[in-house]
Design goal:
The complex is a heterodimer of chains A (about 550) and B (about 100). Chain A has about 550 residues and is of the alpha+beta class. Chain A has 18 helices and 21 strands. In chain A, strands 16, 17, 18, 19, 20 and 21 form a six-stranded mixed beta sheet that branches. A five-stranded antiparallel beta sheet of chain A has the order 1-2-5-4-13. Chain B contains three helices and five strands. The radius of gyration of chain B is 13 Å and the shape is globular. The chains are: A alpha+beta (about 550), B alpha+beta (about 100).
Chain lengths: ~550, ~100
């Protein structure tokens, strides 16, 4: 794992000292809220519906056990004993008071963490595949690239007042688990015909009010050109991006308005100028960073304890079938810890749960944890022989739910239970859907199905790319939920299509049930997942199930 | 004829704690909607809003929220204000726990 250099540590400490003074000046009246707000946002501090909220970056989703324990400590010391993991590999504390935030930031700095650029019109926390360095299908570990970008983008003087926020995601695998096509810039690590490493650069993706799938601006960018090229993209948009209308300010709109060819030409022109300014220091730095991400020493032990538990314990077997993924090293597995126990708040972990996960990582997992954009925790490197013990420890703290990728593994934003921007609640809908399908015992019969819920048009819950997307809106003072179908968050990224009129909070769970029933009757076999059935049969049977035949005829008339 | 003015309260978040507060009749901030001064005159509401907004060392984000006054005091007319008054629905945190 990357360790802070003296420079990093001094930088974070200085920022924390500055912010402590800014908080004091706000409290003593020297700063107005208008002056203070951009300063607090740069340091991850929001004011939400019921309290302040501190958003802490978990760069490329990677944590060690000491960091996870510190998050648990912060949750208990200054919050209400839990944290909320988000779709951008951040953790949010929902209840800090203003005076405590500088202490919280100092506590984070003790374990080399910070909240810098988790908000504001800057380059945000760089996200990566949560299976990085572990996945069997991976070309290269994307985290050194993500760390390089983090260092380049942090406090970058040209990019502190961008037209709007800017999000970058990196994947080192052809199977995209980082939603790269829905980011301002998505980087896919690829090799050219000569076998040299580089990137496919995708630009102008995004969800929100105007969902767009990113477009390829460069098929192959040599590894050594990464930073000058990124700098070219961001600086072209910094000048061109609209500052007159915040709904049109993201790069996806710039790309849409100017066309990808025009943007490509401008970027290449700028790149030609910038390239010589990067003298190779970035590449020296990159080489150093890479050495921090050497894979752990995997041992080769007998997997008999795994096989035995798998054969004899049906609960373990179900968890292993659902929550494990293929690891690159023989005898190993990637274990996902579901933060989606049926009826629980998606993405929330209590301080006790955090400590158990930290202990497991330290004891069995080469001291590594990951946070996925799907709001779960990952033990990326575990030996199969240790999985029965890991499962038992997780079970004891209600973390052994076997539902990864299933209908109850729902992404949900905080919604109107916390968020000041929300137009409706998300969490109770997720809780009700999970509870309902658990009662029906249909979850494993239904198989892989991604439900994603956002409580407003900004789409933090990624509803556009859910197989079933749910968007909560305020319709004449009542919560109303629109459904989209057919979204896809992978390398085959697609934006879902709206089914039609929305449903009330009471009607939404039965509506989801009708969609699932329709899938079960339409699928050609139990092996055809929801998304394939939807692509094959289209929207019509689902519309009929939701709105009936009569509505269709009325509309045709 | 002018549109009928919906009764309002002045609300904000406290600067230090960040929690929801309401302006009372004697211009103090209360954590409880029951204590809020219900404003029924538009001109009066606008003046009170301007004055309250100037108190930036105490509160953040001052605005007028619709209420419906009844015998027990004002109640929110919109679900957002009902959540602000109560707290989140997934845990017994916020105002709902303080009332106990």
């Amino acid at each position: 794992m990357y360790r802070y250099t003296d420079f990093d540590a001094a930088f974070v400490a200085e920022r924390n000292t500055q912010f402590r003074a800014q908080v004091e000046r706000r409290i003593d009246g020297s700063l107005t809220e208008d002056e203070f707000k951009p300063l607090r946002l740069m340091n991850g501090l929001y004011l939400q519906l019921h309290a302040y909220m501190l958003r802490v970056a978990i760069p490329y989703g990677t944590l060690n056990s000491a960091q996870m324990r510190q998050l648990a400590y912060i949750a208990e010391r200054w919050d209400k004993g839990y944290g909320h993991f988000t779709t951008r590999q951040n953790i949010q504390f929902n209840w800090p008071t203003l005076r405590d935030v500088p202490d919280m930031l100092d506590a984070l700095a003790e374990v080399q963490m910070h909240a810098i650029q988790t908000s504001g019109n800057t380059i945000r926390n760089v996200t990566a595949d949560h299976f990085a360095g572990a996945a069997a299908d991976e070309i290269a570990d994307p985290r050194p690239v993500a760390e390089l970008i983090r260092q380049w983008s942090t406090d970058h003087p040209e990019f502190q007042f961008l037209p709007r926020k800017f999000k970058i995601a990196v994947t080192g695998s052809p199977n995209d688990r980082a939603v790269t096509k829905a980011h301002d810039i998505g980087l896919r690590m690829v090799r050219n015909e000569a076998g040299e490493p580089g990137f496919e650069v995708i630009v102008g993706g995004g969800l929100g009010r105007t969902p767009m799938i990113g477009k390829i601006v460069r098929d192959f960018l040599p590894e050594s050109d990464l930073l000058p090229y990124l700098e070219a993209v961001v600086s072209v948009w910094n000048l061109l991006g609209r500052r007159d209308n915040k709904y049109k300010s993201r790069i996806k709109i710039t790309v849409h308005e100017h066309g990808i060819d025009d943007i490509r030409a401008r970027v290449e022109e700028r790149f030609a100028l910038l390239r010589s300014a990067f003298t190779g220091v970035d590449q020296q730095l990159y080489a150093q960073i890479k050495s921090d991400f050497e894979p752990p020493a995997f041992n080769n032990r007998d997997v008999a304890p795994f096989d035995q538990a798998y054969a004899n314990d049906p609960v373990f077997r179900s968890w292993a079938d659902t929550n494990l993924s293929a690891h690159r090293a023989p005898g190993h597995a990637i274990a996902q810890i579901s933060l989606k126990a049926h009826g629980a708040t998606p993405g929330d972990a209590s301080a006790d749960q955090m400590r158990v996960m930290a202990d497991l990582a330290e004891r069995y997992g080469h001291d590594e944890l990951r946070i996925s954009h799907e709001q779960n925790v990952v033990l990326p490197h575990v030996h199969k022989a240790d999985l029965p013990a890991i499962h038992a420890a997780l079970k004891a703290v209600d973390l052994a739910t076997a539902n990864i990728g299933k209908i109850s593994d729902i992404i949900a934003c905080p919604g109107m239970d916390y968020c000041a921007l929300a137009t409706a609640r998300s969490i109770p809908i997720a809780q009700e859907i999970a509870t309902r399908f658990d009662q029906l015992k249909l979850e494993h019969e239904v198989g892989d199905l991604k439900i994603k819920i956002s409580g407003c048009i900004n789409a933090c819950g990624h509803h556009h790319v859910g197989h079933i997307g749910i968007l909560g809106l305020d319709r004449a003072g009542v919560e109303n939920y629109q459904i989209t179908l057919g979204g896809d968050h992978t390398e085959n990224a697609a934006v879902g299509q709206r089914t039609g009129p929305g449903f009330s909070a009471d009607e939404i769970v039965p509506a989801i049930e009708r969609i699932v029933d329709t899938y079960l009757s339409e699928r050609d076999s139990a092996d055809e997942p929801f998304i394939d059935t939807f692509r094959r049969v289209g929207m019509t049977p689902f519309k009929t199930a939701l709105y009936g035949e009569s509505e269709k005829k009325q509309k045709a008339a | 004829m002018p549109a009928i003015f919906t009764p309002k309260v002045i609300t904000a978040n406290a600067l230090l704690e960040g929690d929801v507060v309401y302006l009372t009749q004697d211009d103090t901030w209360s954590r409880n909607l029951k204590d809020a001064d219900v404003l029924t005159d538009e001109a009066d509401a606008q003046i009170r809003l301007i004055d309250a907004s100037a108190r930036s060392s105490e509160v953040v984000g001052v605005y007028l929220a619709d209420v419906s006054p009844d015998a027990k005091g004002p109640t929110p007319t919109h679900f957002r204000e009902a959540f602000r008054m109560r707290g989140p629905s997934n845990y017994p945190h916020g105002k709902q726990s303080e009332a106990l």
